[in-house]
Amino acid sequence: MVHGIIKQHGGDIQVYSEEGQGTAFKVYLPAVSEEAQENKTVVHPSKTSQGNETILVVEDELSVRTLAARILERFGYNVLEAEEPEAALMLIQKHAEKVHLLVSDVVMPKMDGKTLYTQLREFYPELKVLYMSGYTNEIIAHQGVLEPDIDFIQKPFSMRDFSRKVRKVLDK
């Protein structure tokens, strides 16, 4: 994820590691001449981004899962959370109502997001999916993890971008 963020900002990262000695990371970012400005943008839920659908968020990193769930709840969605695909499958078997969208990390231990989506479609054939990852879309598509035209959002994401992307996928 760090590599993707650095590359996205025109930088580079170098790693040097020596057994028994440790590891050093050097991060190079382009210099800027202007002074940093404080960002005071407050995002309020807009009617175009709001919904009432049920969304399952599957993410093994607690902070990302919690953030995604809170954003979705703020925009009016019903949210189910699972930290791993196996827990998501068990949760779905107990959940009586329809789930409209899966928001899932692509790369997780034991099972990837694509396999999870395939298994969840047995319960909900109309289920839509939005994948997220710290890797760029190009890297994931190049490695064959996802098809190039799949719905995807790169972490970290803003509240605005995430809510708009979720609404776009649900409205397809």
Largest sheet, order of strands side by side?
A: 4-3-5-6-7
Provide mean pLDDT, rounded.
Answer: 85
Radius of gyration: 18 Å
Give the helix level as a range of percent. 25-40%
Model regions low in confidence, pLDDT < 50 over at least 5 residues: none
The general outline is: globular
Q: Please state the structural category.
A: alpha/beta
SS element count, helices: 6
Q: How many DSSP E strands? A: 7
Describe this structure as you would to a colleague.
With 172 residues, the chain is an alpha/beta fold. 33% of the residues lie in helices and 22% in strands. It is built from six helices and seven strands; from the N terminus they run αβββαβαβαβαβα. It has a five-stranded parallel β-sheet with strand order 4-3-5-6-7, sandwiched between helices. It has a two-stranded antiparallel sheet with strand order 1-2. β1 (12-18) and β2 form a beta hairpin. The longest helix has 13 residues, at 62-74. The radius of gyration is 18 Å and the shape is globular.
Topology diagram in text:
Blueprint: H1 2-8, E1 12-18, E2 22-28, E3 54-58, H2 62-74, E4 78-82, H3 85-94, E5 101-105, H4 113-120, E6 128-133, H5 137-142, E7 152-154, H6 159-171
Parallel strand pairs: 3-4, 3-5, 5-6, 6-7
Antiparallel strand pairs: 1-2
Helix pairs in contact: 3-4
